[in-house]
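New here. Your pick:
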Amino acid sequence: MRIQRTGVALGALSAACFVSVTSENLPVALLPQFAAGFGVSGSAIGLLMTGYAIVVAVSVVPLVALTARWDRRTAALVTVAAIAVSNLLLALAPGYAVAVVARLVAAAGHGVFWSVVAPMAARLLGPDRSGRATAVVFAGNSLAFLFGLPLSSWLGETIGWRPTVLAVAGAAALAAVVVRATVEPTPAGPPAPRRGALGRALLPVNLATLVVVTGHFAAFTYITAIIADSVHLTGAATSALLFAHGAAGLLGLVLIGRRVDSRPRATALVVTGGLAVCMVVLLIPGSGVVAGAAVVLWAVPAGGMAVVLQAAVLRVAAQPDLASAVYIVAFQVGIATGAAVGGAALDHGALPAAVALAAGCGLAATLIVRRSAAFRGTP
C-alpha cells in the first residue's frame, strides 16, 4: 500500500512538472501567435524566456533561503499556484508590457519549485535511487515537450493563443489540487553546510550546466524557426515534428533515467556529446529530411539533460534544497544567455550561428563531464 501511495505522489509531482515546463516554454510553442498578438518581433517574444530566466536566477537562492523552514509540499503548492495566476494574467494581457509582468509572476516562484521537487522525490524513494526518482518526476518535463508544447502550438493555431494560455492556467490550478491531495507533508531538510564547501562540490556540475544549457537554448528557443528554415515545415506540420521531438525526449528520459544511478558519467556524456552531434548535423547542408531527423534526435540527449545534472547535484550535496537552488541559477543563466544569443542571431538572419554555438557548448560540456568527479558514481 505504501508503494502505491508513493507512486501516486510521484505521479502528482510529475504532473506539476508537466504544467511548469509547458507554461515556461509557451513563448517557444506560441512564438508567432504571441508576436502577432502583441505586435512585436520574434526576438522580443524570445525575451519572455530570457527575462523569465533572469528573474529565476536572481531570486532563487534568497527565496529558497527565505522558505527554508517551510514544509516542502507547501512550497511546491505556492509556486504551482503562482503558475496559474501568471497564465491567467497573460491570457488577459492587453499588451506586451503586461505580458512581461505576467511571466515574472511565475518566474518568481519557479526556482523554489525546482529546488524542492527533486529532493522531495528522492526522499520518497531513498538516497540510493535519487536518480531514478528524479527521472520519474521529470517524466512530466518530457511529456510537456511530447504533448504540452505541440498541443499548445496546435491550439494556438486552432482556437487562438489567449484560450490556450487560459487552459494552461486551469491545468496549473488542477495540478495544485492534486499535489495537495496526494503528497504527504514533507518537512524541511537539515541546515545548510558552509558555503565554501557547497560551492567547491558543485562547481563542475554548475559549470557543465551553464555551458550545455546555454548551447541548448540558443537553438531550442527558436526551434520553430529552425524547423521552418532547415526542414521547410510550417503550421500543423511544425506541430507534428514537435510531437516527434517530444516522443524522442521521452525515450531519452527513460533510457537515461534507467542508467543515471549506475552509470552517471556515461549518461552525462550521452547528453553533452549527443547535443553536439545533432547540432553539427543541422549545420550540414542537405535535405529537409536529414534536418528533420536531427531535430527529432536532438530531443534524446535533451530529454535526459535535467535528470543527469540534477542527479549529480543530489550526489554531491549535503543540503539538497540549497544545492538545487544554486544549480538552478546556473540552469536559468544558461537559458537566459542562450535565448538572448539565439535571438540576436535570428534578428541578424544568422540562425546557423546559434546552432554552431550549441554544438560548441556540447563539446565543451563533454570535456567538463569527463574531468569531473561529480559525474562518477562515488565522487
The chain has a mean pLDDT of 84. The longest helix spans residues 96-125. The chain has one domain: 2-375.
